[in-house]
Design brief:
Layout lengths: L1 E6 L3 H7 L2 H8 L4 E6 L12 E3 L7 E3 L1 H14 L4 E11 L2 H8 L3 E6 L7 H6 L3 E4 L9 H12 L32 E2 L2 E2 L2 H4 L3 H19 L1 H5 L2
Parallel strand pairs: 1-2, 1-6, 5-6, 5-7
Antiparallel strand pairs: 3-4, 8-9
Helix pairs in contact: 1-6, 4-6
The chain binds adenine.
């Protein structure tokens, strides 16, 4: 999969995408991430990419021209399956959306700043608008990093069997069960007997029950969708 990201603060995307599983995905050649500095398509020699908003009011708007030029230039060599704008008024990200996006070949992500991007870019270029939650970040970069991570770990071959994404919380609309490691007894707090039984059927049953219970307690809304 190839992901291109348009940003005015590419530095913000460096660290999250260069470690751990995202690094492995890229090292294995399963994921290619290209971060482009939007100022490359600035409207003048001062690197301008934003301007005051019509109608007045505080806050700058990211202008049409740099974004349109960037999208058009990148689209000459890559056919994007989706052009995604990260914005707090987008559709809220969930596992189903990440699963769907992980099946695509080429994605372009646009990180907004200031008051956001000119509405005409949203109308004429953007095909999907995603929010990572009901709160406002200073820009779309951290949201893009979250989105890339949630998609990247689903690509076949990125995770090994033990860490398989199939067992993640939300993958079947249930939260993951509790997990334990050594020692069996820590300060008198014991690992549940079922996990120590060596009986795989019993262990699976226990885990499923715990998943259901945890989902019922913490996120009953997820069970309504089952
Ligand atoms: N940009 C600013 N806040 C955001 C959010 N919550 N989700 C996605 N992009 C954003």
């Amino acid at each position: 999969m190839r992901i291109d990201i348009l940003s005015v603060l590419p530095e913000l995307l460096e660290s999250p995408l260069q470690h751990s599983i995202m690094k492995r995905a890229q090292d294995k050649g399963l994921l290619e991430v290209h971060v482009h500095h939007l100022r490359k398509w600035a409207v003048n020699e001062y690197g301008q990419i934003d301007d005051y908003q019509y109608g007045g009011g505080a806050g700058m708007v990211m202008m049409c021209e740099p974004l349109a030029k960037a999208i058009e230039e990148l689209s000459q060599t890559v056919t994007y399956d989706e052009i995604i704008y990260l914005t707090p008024d987008g559709k809220q990200l969930n596992q189903q959306i990440s699963n769907g996006l992980s099946l695509k070949k080429n994605l372009l992500m646009i990180c907004g700043h200031y008051k956001g991007i000119d509405e005409r870019i949203r109308e004429h270029f953007v095909t999907m608008e995603i929010s990572i939650g009901d709160y406002v970040l200073s820009g779309g970069e951290l949201a893009a990093a979250v989105l890339v991570d949630s998609i990247g770990r689903l690509l076949p071959g990125v995770l090994n069997d033990e860490t398989s994404a199939l067992f993640d919380s939300f993958q079947d609309n249930l939260l993951a069960p509790p997990v334990y490691s050594r020692p069996v007894d820590f300060r008198g707090w014991k690992v549940p007997d079922a996990l120590m039984s060596g009986n795989h059927r019993l262990i699976e049953e226990w885990r499923h029950e715990q998943s259901l219970k945890r989902t019922q307690d913490r996120r009953p809304d997820l069970l309504k969708d089952l």
